[in-house]
Amino acid sequence: MVLLKEYRICMPLTVEEYRVGQLYMIARHSLEQSESGEGVEVIVNVPCEHPEHGKGQYTEKRIHLSSRLPFWIQSFLPRVFYVTEKAWNYYPYTITEYTCSFIPKFSIHIQTKFENNNGSSENCLNLTPEQLEQRTVDFVDICYDEISPRHYKEEEDLRFYQSSVTKRGPLAEGWTSTTQPIMCSYKVVQANFDVWGLQTKAEELIQRSIREILLLGHRQAFAWVDEWYNMTLADVRVFESEMHRQTNTKVTEDLPSVPTTPLTPPAPTTPTVANRSSWFPWQ
To answer: Global pTM?
Structure first.
């Protein structure tokens, strides 16, 4: 069984450019994918600091998704069901964790690093020899990988899109070998879902969903480049705050109240290599 999965997603951007584009994409995408009682609710968004990685930003979100799951899962979930996302962004290195209080044996841990290359680093995140043996690498092509028809928009089709600001695009086949600038998002993901009778179905569902979210989000980050390219980091933080406000209003208007989280950022956990599980990334 595959225990480790490393996604490599190339972008026709530099690492510094992507820093703004990623924040813009996540904030706007969260708003567009949210509706009354469903979507992403931002609970905490505060500065944090790590002894090795330095200053960063900690965010905590609740992903409300009960009605978006298959009926066989909805049948045993409570009305107020959400996955908690905790993220420590020490750009260009980030840690993201997903947990669910209703399913204590479910967790996902993601390490991400961004580099100015086309996915050529063989051990970007310094995996151990044991982890390297268990790892499989999946290159996600933002232009030529097939996307779900429900998410397809002609204006976001990178085979035809050209940025009027940067003049980059359209992306021809084999673009990762010929395009400059280029950067890569390396994501090493560990997921555990130790629930007897549901493990295989749930892991297959989560794996398909996560890869599709990665593909869609990174396509949009470049397709929206003209909207964020001239933003500063301060500009995009203001935009992010406003998107969070609008998203929270949409998501929580039909939800009962739930406990809040203290503002002090917790420390990320350090997972060990499990004897069995699937590995896959989310945002």
So the answer is: 0.84
